[in-house]
Model the fold of this input.
Amino acid sequence: MTDATSPWARTAGSGPASEFPAAPHLAPSRPVYDGRLGELYAIYLRHVVLMILTLGWSRFWGRTRLRRYLWNHLAVLGDRFEYRGRGRELLIGFLLAVVMLAAWGGLMWLVWTYVFHDKPFSSFGILDIFSLSVAVIGFPLAYVGHYAGLRYKLSRTRWRGIRCGLAGSAWHYGMVATFLTFANAITAQLLTPVVSVNLARPRISNARVGTLPFAFAGAASDIYGRYIGYYFLNIAAWIAAIVAVFAILGGTTSEFGVSTDDLLKLVTEPSLRTILIAAAIAAGAYIVFSLLILPLRCWWQAYLFRYLVSHSRAGPVLFASAITTRQMWGFLVLNYLIVVLTLGLGWPWVMHRTLKLIASELWLYGVPDGAAIGQPAHRGPRFGEGLLDMFDVSGV
Done:
């Protein structure tokens, strides 16, 4: 479908959208996803085979084919999405990121040669400096890549022939996200509501469907009470688990005739075998307990998702979700098991389950004023997702 044949373009031209009509018609509806897992796997397995044959260089076209299938099988208000991205755009974006990384490597070589050479840091080699610097800049650049990648995907997405888009600066988003993440780490995760709301706001309020803007009215103060309850319940659960583990270990050692002196000797003079066994037990206990208390985390995640959705709107269209803690727990646990047990080959199943959950748990109230929505003036970035491909695991 071209711009000229768009049903909205024929009636609207390019007039501006009315952001908040006085009396919106709140007819409820849900997205519809009718993709089939077998069809999705056929595309994915072809993608994997070509990746092997081309040493990974075909992944840009494979990712594009997957997106086209997923987009084309998701419909809102009876109209399907279209994905107009191209594999070569992803390839060019990746090559530009490689050039940028090579330029950074050259800069690090100059620093090592003219700043650290024949100085106390001379034993710190060029590879060490380069690796450390990439780790440092990679953290904020991953956030920049996330935002730029979202902008690219939206700019290649059409609904009723109208291009979507994302305004705002990816670099500003990256700086804010980096600062908030470090501040949250320093405060022992107590700023999580601030981080969640302030990173969701630009992604939502800068989104567009043509000239129809989205809006976000959330505030961290609204969800702090719920988060504080979750935070201290989580701490209490971990303390109870640690006490239970020590009690079990104490009873087990007494039953098998292991004295306190023997335990102290194992701790103060551990052998390599003891260290490996202790590390394996600790890792196993952490994974098992993390799964056991995951419902507590999912209680918070489900609440946060419902809050963010209900405080977003697109002009006259309101959003709502009734996703429950049980649904979130089943979704996260099963997705994790699918990916781990299939060694990554279960990604199509995860994507399929994700869109099915969105289609079943997202409600839209109202319809957009098609006569007031036109094509956006800007067509979006020419290339896509280079930073995301370089500094993060880029999914579909």
Confidence is low (pLDDT under 50) at residues 1-23.
